[in-house]
Amino acid sequence: MKKERKTTAHRGVSSLAPENTMAAFKLVKEHGSQWIEIDVQLSADGVPMVIHDRTVNRCTNGRGSVREMSVSQLKMLDAGGWFDDRYVGERIPTLEETLLYVQEAGLHLNIELKVYPEDNVLALCDKVKEVVEESEIPLSQVLFSSFDNQALYQMMLTLPLVRRGQLWQQIPDEALALLHKIEAYSVHCDYRFLVKQEAELIKEAGYQLFCYTPNFPELVEKHWQWGVDMMITDDPKAYALTLES
Ligand code: G3P
Ligand code: MG
Prior knowledge:
The longest helix has 15 residues, at 121-135. The protein has helices at residues 22-25, 71-75, 95-105, 121-135, 149-158, 175-181, 196-204, 221-225; strands spanning 3-4, 6-10, 35-42, 48-50, 108-113, 142-146, 163-168, 186-190, 208-212, 230-233, 243-244. It is built from eight helices and eleven strands. Helix 4 (121-135) links the parallel strand 5 and strand 6. It has a single domain (2-244), classed as TIM Barrel (Alpha-Beta Barrel), CATH 3.20.20. It is α/β, with parallel strands linked by helices and 245 residues long.
């Protein structure tokens, strides 16, 4: 039986355009993914912003902590020039802008709730819930993921109809208890550490299993055989035409 090899575009098509920008999101469909993964954290004035690092230093022309900058300060920064001159003028998107694009494009969005030490988890969850609800996106088109089990627990309480995926670099011994606690839909783990027995455990327990971030299909040939359902990759096109037999 042929099974489609599904991908999520990690931070958009981040191999070809600056990560977590509209330019990277606009490539997703033509590169064969139905899903975009983004990283979300709050600005100083409580706006969910799409950016991975704790600071703006790596991916913009500014310096400083995301959580100490207002949305208007963050919006002044260039988020494309660090990647390539062609992308000068890209801005850090808000979650709201991203949801609008995802709806227009008919895509799905994996919203990773980024929790850095001393971040206010409840505030992040509250604001994200607010923006997702206001967008009126069908909730089946959204998935919350996080390394922070507490953030996912909070999302289960506040917006239970959005599915939840637990991120782990390595699947821990207490995995099933933690997944049960958040009524998880999926497990997202680092492909480099996954072993067959763990993959089987997760699949037998009824969860979807995703791997991040293999950028060459040959790295995960065996992972598909173990039952992995989706690869979260910077280069989705590399997988677009491969089929499992
Ligand atoms: O969602 C998978 C992946 O994004 C998790 O790690 O650091 O790339 O956000 P990171
Ligand atoms: Mg991420």
